[in-house]
Amino acid sequence: MITSIAHATIYVLNQDEALDFYKNKLGFEVGDDMKVEGGFRWLTVYPKSNSQLQLVLAEPKEGPMFNKEAAEKIRSLITEGAFGAGVFETENCQQTYEELVAKGVEFIQPPTEQLYGVEAMGLDNSGNWFSLVQR
Amino acid sequence: MATNYKFKKVKAGRDHIADNFHNALSLSDMAKHAHISPYHFLRVFRDTYGETPNEFLIRLRVTHAKKLLITENHSVSEICEHVGYSSLGSFSSLFLKQTGMAPTLYRRKLWALSAEPFCFPSQAIPACYAYHFLGK
Question: Is the minimum CB–CB distance between A63 and chain B shorter than 8 Å?
C-alpha cells in the first residue's frame, strides 16, 4: 500500500531564480539543496511546516533523459505555461493572494468561488501555473 | 468545525517543533504551543500524523544531521549540538538506530562514494531522479 507522495517534479528555467521565487516570494522552505556527482543539483522546497510532499525544482538539461532538442522544447513549453506546479493550499485565499501580489507574483485569475472552495491561479517565475486554494 | 479547530491546535504544536527542532524541546513545550495538555497532545498528534511528536522531532534532527555530515566539514559533536542534542552519546546511538550506521561511518561511506568531498553521490537522491538526470 502506498501511503503518501514524497516528491513531485516541476521543471524550471533556472534553479537559482526558481529558488529565489519559491523561497522569498511564496515563502517555502528549502528541503535539500545539494550538488550531486555528475553536476546535477538536487533542489527541493516545501511549504513551511509541512515537509511531507516536497517539490523538486529541476532544470531540463541535455543528458541521459533528454537530447538537446528535447530539453529546448521543454524549456519553450515551460515559458508558454504548458506545465503546472500543482495546487497549493492556504487558509485564506484572498489574504495570501494579496500578500503574493504585493511581492510581485503574477496572477492570471484572482480569488474566485469554485465548487471546492476559493481559488486563485498564479504563475511562478518560469511560467508554470499554480493554484492557490482555500477549502 | 470542532475537528478543524482541534487540527489547528495540533498543527500549531507541529509548526513549533518544525521551527525549533534544533533547540531542546520537551513534550510540555510542544503541548503548550498547541494549548492542549501534554498527554492529549501526544495522542492527537499521533492519530493525526501517524507518528509521535518525539518521533517527528527525531526524524527532523536525524535528517538535518545527515545533510550536515555530508555537506559540511563540522565535527560530529558540532553537528550533534547543531541539531539540538547536548549529549554526543545519545545523539550517536540515536543516529545509529535510525540509519544503521554511526555518524562518522555514514559520512565516510557517502564521501567515499562521491567523486569529490562535499558532493553527494547519486545514491543520496531518489533513484528515479538519479536515473532521469544522471543516467544511473
Answer: yes
Residues of A in contact with B119 (CB under 8 A): 34-37
For residue A102, tell me if it sits in a domain: yes
The answer to whether A87 and A130 are in contact (CB under 8 A) is yes
Q: Class of the B2-115 domain?
A: mainly alpha
What confidence score (pLDDT) does residue B1 get?
42
Q: What does the pLDDT read at residue B47?
A: 92
Q: Is residue A1 part of a domain?
A: no
**CA gap A47, A23 in Å, rounded:** 9
Contact call for A36 and B125, based on CB within 8 A: yes
Residue A93 lies in a domain: yes
Alpha helices for B21-134 (secondary structure H): 27-34, 38-49, 53-71, 76-82, 88-99, 103-113, 127-134
A84: in domain? yes
For residue B110, the model assigns a pLDDT of 87
pLDDT tens per residue across span B50-90? 999 999 999 999 999 998 998 888 999 999 999 999 889 99
